[in-house]
Design brief:
mainly alpha, 11 helices
Length: 232
């Protein structure tokens, strides 16, 4: 005999996070009707009928992870804000009995830092077990974020190098200014080289963690081979 949704809800009621999601769906829906939101979800391939949306807001229907992602897309917000409304609620209960600042909860969810715990004098710190395991646990997010940062830094340096060379060749009013532009081009080229070296290190760490690094631009396509940071 199958367990109905109502029976499951009575046996295992929503926790604080589930209730927070229900509140946030209702708030973000605003003047949008249940039918309109349901049509958006239908178009996204994750249909929830109007009655189901009403029950979500009344905390009598659960939101699973597929629903959460689709609701975020339909309501135009990152799904994490359905869980943790940053800037609107000061603290949230992330686990039974564990309340943390909402911004800390959001950063934990997105892999930026471990959960904080309250300490003396109103300060927040990290529990030793969390801090010790976080580096490994959050490695994929940290490495990909650092990879993006270095790619942006490399592109900026290359663009600045090119701009300085153009100025040196066509816009310099005299030889002294041309020398300045060429020196700047050299500095930008060195910055790009440093970014490449750091990228090679990040990608090497990705391989060690069993991850697949992002694809590289044509100019950097042989970076792994040049730097010896490939799988082998």
């Amino acid at each position: 005999m199958s367990v109905t949704e109502d029976e499951d809800h009575r046996k295992n009621p929503l926790g604080a996070t589930g209730e927070m999601v229900a509140d946030n769906v209702k708030r973000l829906r605003g003047s949008l009707s249940y039918r309109e939101l349901s049509e958006r979800l239908e178009a996204l391939g994750r249909p929830i009928p109007p009655l189901g949306l009403s029950r979500i807001e009344k905390c009598t229907r659960r939101v699973d992870v597929d629903d959460l992602v689709a609701l975020g897309a339909a309501l135009g917000v990152p799904p994490v804000l359905l869980l943790y409304p940053v800037g609107l609620v000061e603290e949230v209960e992330v686990l039974p009995g564990r309340v943390v600042p909402t911004w800390n909860a959001a950063k934990w969810f997105t892999g930026e830092q471990p959960l904080a715990s309250p300490g003396p004098f109103g300060r927040w710190g990290f529990d030793p077990p969390d801090a010790q395991t976080w580096e490994t646990g959050a490695a994929p997010v940290d490495l990909y974020r650092e990879h993006d940062r270095l790619i942006s830094e490399w592109k900026a340096a290359r663009n600045q190098e090119g701009s300085s060379r153009v100025k040196a060749s066509s816009a310099a009013p005299d030889e002294e200014q041309r020398t300045v532009y060429l020196r700047q081009a050299t500095e930008h080229r060195e910055r790009a080289g440093q970014a490449e070296e750091q990228l090679a290190c990040v990608r090497s760490r990705m391989y060690r963690f069993g991850l697949t690094p992002p694809a590289l631009t044509d100019e950097l396509a042989d970076l792994d081979e040049r730097a010896g940071s490939g799988r082998g």
